[in-house]
Amino acid sequence: MKKINKILAVNFGGIGDEILFLPALISLKKEFPDADITLALEPRSKSVKDLTDIINDIIPVDIKNKNKYIELIKFIIKARKEKFDLAITAGGNKFMSIILRLTGAKKRYGYDCGTLSKILLTKAVPLNKKQYAAKMYHDLITPVTSYTTELPQINVPKQEKISNSVLIHPGVSKMSVQKGMIKTVPAEVWAQTIDLLVVSGKKVLLAGGPDDKECIETILKTVKTNNFENLYGKTKNLKELAELIGKAEIFLCSDSAPLHVAVAMGTKTFAIFGPTDDQKLIPENVTAIKAKDICALKPCLWEKRQTTCPTLDCLKINAEDIVKTIINK
Q1: For residue 130, what pLDDT band results from cuts at 50, 70 and 90?
Q2: Residues 97-123: what's their mean pLDDT?
Q3: Residue 308 lies in domain
């Protein structure tokens, strides 16, 4: 392959998706150490650049905007001006093959979505969704490198641990809630979990971002103990949250972006899972806490439906079981 100086990576999704995409970018950088990497992503996810130095530039593309086609045209024009040597797309549909071809990149790699992707891409890679998402994304670059990066890595130094600590980050993105994608237990269960962890002798820390305001307020009204540290609002950005997660001995969270930050920090992590597939979203060293329901459709979110069902049996997880899992693991 001719010298690669400029690489374009396209991944439209939330911040969690971008963190899961990092292993592929890291391996690309190992293969082409002198190349600059530009990441095209949704504006809501641009803070991923604060976590790594392998991304030289970002191109925000607001595909959630009502004028998304204008946004895509602007992106294509900008990409053509940059004259990229190599481009990859994490999109799993043939439309993304068209977009990548229109960018003018000399070498183009994406998932095999049928005949069109095979025509428009230099190599159409088989899409295997039945695996950890970071590995699924990493498959995209197998035609150009033999390097393998198993887990997300971020440029946040190792932190000194707070002895016997459990950091709780209960929230999920407001966008998912607004769309009817309920992925975590009620705030009242989080409050009971704090009470039980304190009784068990753990030093409990509570954190959250702007999207978690309502959840945190309910927790603070419901929790019985005062013997925990409320750090809500103390972390101003994703990097500061990563540092805090790095200080905790144990991290307890929902299926959300902080989960993937914790994986990158190497913190022992427990995550609440309900309608989504833990096998695809966490590596083996993370413990999924799940309900003992017998729903035949679980996991259903994204696979069988775009919103969660009204009963939410898969999220009927009590605080006792959460704490028991953490203490006994």
Answers
A1: very high
A2: 96
A3: 162-328
At residue 181, does pLDDT exceed 80?
no
The sign one gets for the Cα dihedral 95, 172, 176, 288 is positive
User: Can you tell me whether residue 190 is helix, strand or coil?
Assistant: helix
Same structural domain for residues 193 and 93?
Answer: no
Chain position carrying tokens 């929790």: 223
Helices (H), the chain: 15-31, 68-82, 94-102, 115-120, 133-138, 174-178, 187-199, 213-222, 238-247, 257-265, 278-281, 319-328
Residue 316 lies in a domain: yes
Which structure tokens are listed for 174?
A: 């407001």
With 0-12 / 13-18 / 19 or more C-beta atoms within 10 angstroms meaning exposed / middle / buried, residue 234 is middle
**Which residues, 6+ apart, have CB-to-CB distance to 262 below 8 Å?**
245, 251, 253, 269, 286
Do 35 and 86 lie in one domain? The reply is yes
pTM over 0.70: yes
**What does the pLDDT read at residue 1?**
65
